[in-house]
Write a structure and sequence with these properties.
32% of the residues lie in helices and 32% in strands. By secondary structure, the chain is of the alpha+beta class. Helix 6 packs antiparallel against helix 8. It is elongated, with a radius of gyration of 39 Å.
Length: 534
């Protein structure tokens, strides 16, 4: 008896699970592909633009720390939260730097394969002629005199700026493949690589550049390019403050002109400066500095950002000795330039027997300066920003100004702590015109001598500024090329006439690689030119 039992089927093998290492590799590969996609680069570029908005709308600590701290204090807990989120130091924040770095990596990973593909395309001849040309978007048929070889040679000559190839088949048919518009992709690559170059140049500029601001009063000794001589100095992360470009400058005159409405017309400063070579010879050069007309020397640019007034006061102490100071006042009114400021005078060392007694007789002056005096009762205001009739309204204090405490003080106001503690006592409140003075109880005379003008200067050093300009121009040129050049392919098949009468049937078809624009007008003309018809 035959055994009819069917043998048991072998158990199906379970799919092998990938090893943990392989899974990590696959996840990393997928993440890399997503990061280097062009859509990701566009999203990151958009995020970078959005991330820069708080840096334009909110005060930044590296530009104006006092204004930033005042903003935080005015907004309470919200200001503190914004500070924790680094919204007052946007361009050095972790999240902005992360977006910046990811955009850089994305562009590199996206563009490198594209440039390799473009290089291969330039070395590769045009593709063979398709079998069915009538399926292409544009298609015409012509009959012309001559053999296929003669017509093909003439057609090749009529495509002077095309990359083209002529192929002869075994049956005598001649096929032509031609293509142009390779500059379109090149322009696209130039645009994106120039964008990448700008990102690199800006990053290097932040690392190796520096900026410093300084107020220079006309007629003073000026300053030389060292970090200690700036009112505010911001250095790149790789700049240690030494080895700065050597130069010195001073403002001979500072002037400002205004329209009849009081709007500023022009700020001008006549500078004397010395470059590196001039410092060796002691030669001073002259430069007419104005807004948007910076002084350029050895990679450094000096800009004039603003203008203001610096009153001059002389304090004559009871012993007859005097001290004179000229200190800039900060404009409080951008329309009429009513300015506020303070001065501190230390008595002569031999006037009082001990330092403690001398400290108790320091003079502090705090008040307002009006370039064009206007009185509302006894209240001093300014009626015009130009220096027509200067006057001051000041409070004169005597006592300990706090210069020896070691604590920093505001340049434009006296120490509130010293005043509130009674260590600095108000002795007089007066309005003074130029040349007028007031005398305190102990015989000290405070005289208002006049007003000088100052220029607010900014010194900038960016070693990559030329590269940024080159990359920006390259971006524009690349964009222009990619928008104006059209990628086109043309195919022609030249078949001997069936009647063997020395004529050739030529079939011409066109394909727009990027769009259909222009073919309705150009294709028929191109086909006529291809077969030698005007």
């Amino acid at each position: 008896m035959t055994d009819t039992k069917t043998p048991a089927a072998a158990p199906a093998s379970l799919p092998r699970r990938p090893s943990p290492a392989r899974r990590v590799v696959e996840i990393a590969r997928n993440m890399w592909r997503s990061l280097t996609a062009m859509r990701t680069a566009l999203v990151l570029l958009f995020l970078l633009a959005v991330a820069a908005v708080p840096g334009a709308l909110l005060p930044q600590r590296e530009l104006n720390e006092q204004k930033t701290e005042a903003y935080i204090a005015a907004h309470g807990w919200l200001g503190r939260v914004m500070d924790k989120l680094q919204l007052f130091g946007v361009f050095k924040s972790v999240w902005f730097t992360s977006i910046y770095a990811l955009l850089f990596i994305s562009l590199v990973g996206c563009l490198t394969p594209r440039i390799l593909d473009h290089a291969r395309a330039l070395r590769t001849p045009p593709v063979p002629t398709p079998r069915n040309l009538s399926r292409l978007p544009r298609h015409v048929t012509r009959t012309v005199d001559g053999t296929p070889v003669e017509v093909g040679t003439r057609a090749m000559a009529n495509l002077p700026r095309w990359r083209k190839v002529l192929r002869t088949q075994d049956d005598g048919t001649v096929e032509i493949s031609a293509e142009k518009g390779y500059l379109r992709e090149l322009g696209n690559l130039v645009f994106h690589f120039a964008l990448l170059g700008i990102l690199v140049a800006l990053a290097l500029g932040k690392m190796y550049g520096y900026e410093g601001s300084r107020i220079v009063v006309e007629g003073d000794d000026g300053f030389c390019n060292t970090t200690s001589n700036y009112d505010d100095f911001r250095a790149g992360s790789l700049v240690n403050g030494t080895g700065l470009t050597p130069f010195c400058l001073k403002a001979d005159t500072v002037s400002a002109t205004y329209l009849p409405s009081g709007e500023p017309d022009q700020y001008v400063s006549e500078l004397s400066y010395q470059g590196a070579e001039d410092l060796q010879t002691g030669t001073w050069r002259h430069y007419h500095l104005a807004v948007n007309k910076p002084l350029r020397m050895q990679g450094v640019r000096v800009y004039m950002l603003g203008h203001g007034y610096a009153p001059t006061f002389t304090v004559i102490f009871p012993g007859g000795q005097s001290r004179t100071q000229t200190v800039q006042f900060a404009p409080q009114d951008a329309i009429d330039y009513l300015s506020m400021g303070a001065m501190r005078f230390d008595p002569p060392s031999d006037l009082y027997p001990t330092d403690a007694q001398r400290r108790l007789h320091q003079i502090g002056i705090e008040g307002l300066l009006a370039p064009t005096k206007a009185l509302q009762g006894t209240l001093l205001t300014s009626s015009f920003p130009a220096l027509r009739d200067p006057a001051v309204a000041v409070d004169v204090y005597e006592g300990d100004t706090g210069l020896d405490t070691g604590r920093p003080q505001n340049l434009y106001s006296l120490s509130r702590d010293q005043i509130d503690a009674g260590r600095l006592v108000k002795q007089a409140r007066v309005n003074l015109d130029v040349g007028q003075s007031t005398t305190l109880k102990d015989g000290t005379v405070v005289r208002f001598d006049g007003v000088k003008q100052f220029a607010a200067l900014q010194v900038s050093h960016d070693p990559t500024q030329d590269w940024v300009l080159v990359c920006a121009i390259s971006m524009l040129l690349g964009l222009l090329v990619s928008l104006t050049i059209k990628r086109r392919r043309v195919f022609a098949r030249l078949i001997p006439s069936p009647d063997d009468n020395g004529r050739t049937l030529i079939e011409v078809a066109g394909l727009a690689r990027t769009d259909q624009a222009g073919w309705n007008e150009d294709f028929d003309k191109l086909a006529d030119r291809l077969v030698g018809k005007d």
